[in-house]
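Entry 14. Structure prediction run on the chain below.
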Amino acid sequence: MTFDAPIWLLVALAVPLLLGAQWAIQKRRMRYAISYSNTSVLASVATKSSWRRGVPVALFALAWLVLALGMAKPQAEVAIPRDEATIILAVDVSGSMAAEDVTPDRMTAAKAAASSFISKLPGRFRIAVVSFSDLADVLAQPTTDRSSTLDALASLEAEGGTAMGQAIIQSIELVEDDRERLALPTPSIMPSQDASPSPAPDERERVSAVLLLSDGYNTTGVSPIAAAGQARAQDVPVYSIALGTPEGVVTVPDQFGNQRLLPVPPDYQTLEAIASTTDGEYFEAPTDEDLQSVYASLGERIGYTTRPDEVTYAFAGLGALLLLLAAATSILWRGRFP
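Output returned:
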């Protein structure tokens, strides 16, 4: 939290002075009270009422502090909905996605979670779908038409290898083409601390990002790390999701036609490196519930930005409430105000 008028914070220094004055008054009253002849009655009354005397003063001091902070014009980061964005869903459809360590299997869980994610995004967000196995294919261009992206997800089937790097390159090309068509600013989803405040939604701010879901190691095509370097150069963050567990297996035929179990653990290290290189974020989803949670978290991160907003009204309201409580307790317990 920051303050536009920090000079008013000096007023808060009066709080300890107020409490010190109250303590001095109480000490003076105690000295006069010692001369009271019936000490047993005095002790009884003091025990019952001493804490009540301090409550109104404490409330008044707290109200003073809160109001002083309010006069300093506090600024807080407030979440606001983004107006527009371009999101590329890059989904692994290699043969390892048939593994059943994620209920009911990795491919089905990925399709369900991605579909739910798309359905909850703001209507003006443009979504594209890229699938990758031996090659990377664009199944849906960036569009606000949710039916086309949902149909693309529904068509996904698990087979082939894993061209993860090529999928990133293809996603970057989609983002660049979309940026050229729209010719709008493209700020980062996770701005640095030195970045200027995000503009309001009506200024048509647009962000671009790739959501990369994979469950295995790159087996063909461009190196994923090299592709991530290109994404960074184009200011395209990649949010990577490692789906599955180290215990995942699929059944494949050997050279003699016999079925055997093949371990298909996720490539955690590469997926984390991709996110780190592109200033994105890395997630692990060992279960279908985890995958749903990851997409929900991504929806909040991408769907909202933050900007500084003055919150003086909150401090003024709280300060007024504390003053009313101080007045009420003073009148009720002391019979006077202040």
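Confidence is low (pLDDT under 50) at residues 191-204.
Filed with the rest of this week's runs.
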